[in-house]
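Before we proceed, please read the two lines closing this message. Tell me what the C-alpha cell row says about the fold.
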Amino acid sequence: MNKPPSITPSIEAERSAHPGELFDDRGNLDIDRLRADFPLLARKVHGKPLVYLDNAATTQKPLPVIETLDRYYRMHNANIHRGIHAVAEEATEAFETARKRVAAFINSPSERSVIFTSGTTESINLVARSWGGANLKPGDEVLISHMEHHSNIVPWQLICAQTGASLRVIPIDDHGQLVLDSLDDLLTERTRLLAITQMSNALGTINPVSSLIKRAHAAGAKVLIDAAQSVPHLGVDVQDLDCDFLAFSGHKVFGPTGIGVLYGREALLESMPPFLGGGEMIKQVRLDGSEFNDPPYRFEAGTPNIAGAIGLGAAIDYVQSLGPERIAQREAALLAWGTEALGSVPGLRLIGTAAQKAAVLSFVLDFAHPLDAGMILDRQGIAVRTGHHCAQPVMDRFKIPATVRASLAVYNTEREIDSLVQGLEKVRDLS
C-alpha cells in the first residue's frame, strides 16, 4: 500500500520552484516573489489593490502553511496520542514534530516546556490561574506595565482579586517608554511575578526585557513575557532571556488562528496544578480522585487544535527559511520609511516614539477621528486598525480615545506606505 505524502515536508520540497527563489543574487529578500507566497495580498478591495497594514492584529498566511493545513485535512485527519491505527499515528507524529519545531524556534531546553494553547490570551490565563492561584496570597504583588495588552492585565486583576494579592504598574513616559526609575520602588521583596510585554502592540515600543528579567530575579520574582508581537518581528531565545514563562500566538507569525504557545520552565510546570480538567491531562482517573499527567500534557486537556499546531510548525519553517535577521532588517527599513513619510503629513501626530521600537505606526489626526479615517482608508483598499487596540490604559495615558494603527510585516512595501500617505490626503479632503 502506498503511504500518503509526509504531512510536514521541508519548505524547499513544498515550493514548486527551486530553493532560494525568494532571494536575489546578493542574498536579499525579493519582496515581489515573497508577496506571491501570500494569496490574499493579490486581492482587490472596493475595486482597489489591497494594502494590508493590519499585521499586529493578524498576519497573512503563506502557501506552505495553507497547503499544509489542506493536506492534513485531506490525508491525515485523526485524533492524536491514543489511536494505534496508521492515520492516528501520522497525525500524532506531525503534532509532536510541530512541538519540537516550536521548541527549537524559541531555543527551549526541552520540548516538554512547550504547551499548545489557543493563543497568548489563554497562555497568560493559564499561568495566572495555575501558577498564580497556587502561589499568590495577601500581601503579594504582581507587577505589570502601563502599556500592556488587556490579555496581560485582566487575568492578573482577576487572580489578584481571588488571592488578595495586589497589582502594581510600571508607568510610561510621553514617548511610550517604561519609566525605569520607578522600578526601585515598584520591584520589592513583595513582588512575586513581573508580567510584561516585549513589544507593545499599540506603540511598537521594544522593552529591555533582558535587564528587567535580571532585576526581577534578583528580587526573587518570576517573569512572564508576552511575546505575541515580538516573536514575528524580533524572534526570541528563552534561554538567553532566562524568562520563566513566555507566551505567543501562531496567527501573528504567519500561522493559523486558534493556536498559541506557552513556554514554561520545566520545574515550574511540574509544580503547577492543571488549568482545565478532562481527557489527555490525566494518567489515571478514579471516582475518588485522579492522577494528573506530566507537562506539557497536564495543560492540554481535550482534543487540541491539531491542524493549528501542524500549521504553526509550517509557519515556523517558513520564518526560518526567510531568516529572522533578514525579516528584522527589512521591517526596520520599512519602519524608518513610514516614520519619515507620516511625519510629512500636516496635522498627524505619532503616538509611540520610543528610541527602540518596531513595525507599528500609531497616530492621531487633527482633521479626522480615527474611526472616520479608517473607514475612508478602507474605501481606498487600505486596511489599518482603528480603536484602542485592546490597550485602553495606553489611550488614557495619552488622553486620546483611539489611534489609527498601521502595522507592518516583511511582505509590505514602501509603495504601500506611500499609498497610506496618499490615502490620508483623501481623508483630509473628505473631513
In short: The domain at 51-57+323-430 is CATH 3.90.1150.10 (Aspartate Aminotransferase, domain 1). Residues 33 and 55 are 19 Å apart (CA to CA). Residues 9-19 have pLDDT under 50 and may be disordered.
